[in-house]
Amino acid sequence: MASNRRLEGRVAIVVGAGSSGPGWTTGKASAVLCAREGAQVVVADVDPRAAEETAEIIRLEGGRVLAVPCDATDAVQVERLAAETVSAFKRIDILIDTLSLPVEGRVVDVSAEDWQKAFAVNLSAAVTAMKAVIPVMAANGGGSIVNVSSIASHVATGPALAAFAASKAALNQVGRAAAIEHAGSKIRVNTVVPGFLKTGSSPCGAAKPGAVPLGDVGDAWDVAYAALYLASSEARFVTGIELVVDGGVTLKCG
């Protein structure tokens, strides 16, 4: 695959970079793409085997990679992740958080436990990761943070996804807040907002015929390339945005 080496010399942490099944998830694709673009990559996932599988792809392609098992909802493990990254590669330039837990249920049906779980994975884990890496980025003169949200944070996508939608909407707003709070440290914070995806686990469900103006659903690589742009110096003047990657779906129902 052709590469412009847009991340040459950078160190990137990708949270949720494993895959629970066959095929490509957004985290797995993002980690491999960062490596192909020259970054030294830290692959973080709650499943050690999944993290190692992604890391092995990067190694076989000649990239430098470190696999770190990490439950991103545990602040102690996330601090360890940041510390191991600095120990191995001396810096942190990029953080890409791809975690997504599609908890289902209407407002009147979703349990308190599921509600808390949705916010723990979809929001609090990203905040915890940002808190761990921002001081390191600031000390190094800047960095880029990319969080992955969902169009469910913008519009009703069909299924009963109250907790998922609310947690991802909160993630969008946290991205805006962090962007303005840390702009002075040259740390950019942006959000990718995917629509229907061929990942096998799209929280928005399956697209109905004709639902996508561009005529197809997206895949993990569409999200990964959006994250790559926001992580790269090509987006040096871009912060606090939500980059929607949905084939035009929200133009129809937004």
UniProtKB/TrEMBL annotation:
Pfam family, one: adh_short_C2
Keywords, alphabetical: Oxidoreductase
Classification via InterPro entries: NAD(P)-bd_dom_sf, SDR_fam
Signal sequence coordinates: none
Source organism superkingdom: Bacteria
Keyword check for Oxidoreductase: yes
GO molecular function, one term: oxidoreductase activity
Family statement: Belongs to the short-chain dehydrogenases/reductases (SDR) family.
Annotated protein name in UniProt: SDR family oxidoreductase
Organism: Methyloraptor flagellatus
